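Re-run with default settings, no changes from the original entry. Doing this only to confirm the output is reproducible before filing.
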Amino acid sequence: MTRIRTTPARDRRKVVRPIAAIAALAVTVLLLQAPAVDAGQLNTGSAGATTALKDIGTSFNGKLLPNQYIQSSNDRYRLIMQSDGNLVLYDRNQSRACWGSGTDGIRDVWAEYHEGALNPAVPYLDLNSPYGHLKRYKGGYTWLNKTGNVNVNNSGEVWIAYKKFVSC
């Protein structure tokens, strides 16, 4: 009679642990291969590709979609929702980024302005993706004014309603 040899449970654990470690390493390598973009670079798509950016004015009060931007009326400062997922404030005269949201590497991110849905009522800017909420930036109202938008002024300041958010 032929005897079939089975692997004891303690030996199977020795096999499973290396496989789990290899799987974790593979996921880490995939995450590291996501496109990393310095805040000083404008990434509008895949390597070598140019994507047309769309100017939507000096402010918005709804959504800022990938490859859309708002700019100051003097055309010097731009707040761009890049296609790589990073929201970036640029100073075009100095050819540099002043601020970046740090959400690059996540595709299909959009910025969305909300009119005081928080308690107490505070306007805010959300960065969202198909995978969920990424970041929230709170703005502010004045005692008299309870409406607003996100805008860029000629001094390079981005305001969420009546509160300065970032500047160059």
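Residues 54-167 form a domain with the Agglutinin, subunit A fold (CATH 2.90.10.30). The chain is about 15% helix and 35% strand.
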